[in-house]
Amino acid sequence: MPPPPISSQSFPHFIFGYGSLICPTSRAVTAPSLRGRYATPVCVQNLERMWSFPVPECGMTFMGVRVATGKGCVGVLVPVNDDELAQFDVRELGYDRVLVSPSDISKIDLEPLEPNEQQEEKQEHPDAESFFPSDKNQKIASPRSTVWVYIQQAPSP
């Protein structure tokens, strides 16, 4: 059974997830209240995804995005409240939370490559219509919430 519909008043923010935040399990580790919450697939223009955040202490490099005119980055919009947003601010150490221009966000429709009779009905976040007009190919007309993205901080000299 899907979660009950939510309103943009309950979730005044959306986070654009482009790396580990695409994964529902990863999001729920940071904010357990997100378990079972929908995320809406989108493309954000003028951002470019890259492996850009090396952390030698753990031997890993993490995803980042940078502002890049004419590029696009596919990810998800995750609805969050003020408390959940604060939890992600702690998680995303080394990244700055930056506003995303609503005109740069387009909804994308993910269809399976091959039909699957056992595939569950596609579900999306019930609040998606607050961001997208009925024509799924149009840009956002008038968002009711704020959309944020985490961008890697400039390295210290």
> Largest beta sheet: what is the strand line-up?
4-6-1-3-2-5
Low-confidence stretches: 1-9, 118-142
Instruction: Report the principal-axis shape.
Output: globular
- Give the % helix: 10-25%
SSE order: EHEEHEEE
Major sheet description? 6 strands, mixed
Structure commentary:
The N and C termini lie far apart (51 Å). The protein has a six-stranded mixed β-sheet. A hairpin with a 4-residue loop joins strand 2 and strand 3 (60-80). Helices cover 11% and strands 36% of the residues. The chain is mainly beta and 157 residues long. Mean pLDDT is 77; it is low at 1-9 and 118-142.
Secondary-structure map with pairings?
Elements: E1 13-17, H1 24-30, E2 40-55, E3 60-80, H2 82-91, E4 95-99, E5 105-107, E6 146-152
Parallel strand pairs: 1-6
Antiparallel strand pairs: 1-3, 2-3, 2-5, 4-6
Write a concise keyword list for the protein shown above.
single chain, about 160 residues, mainly beta, 6-stranded mixed beta sheet, 2 helices, 6 strands
Please give a quick description of this structure.
With 157 residues, the protein is mainly beta. It has helices at residues 24-30, 82-91; strands at residues 13-17, 40-55, 60-80, 95-99, 105-107, 146-152. The protein has a six-stranded mixed sheet with strand order 4-6-1-3-2-5.
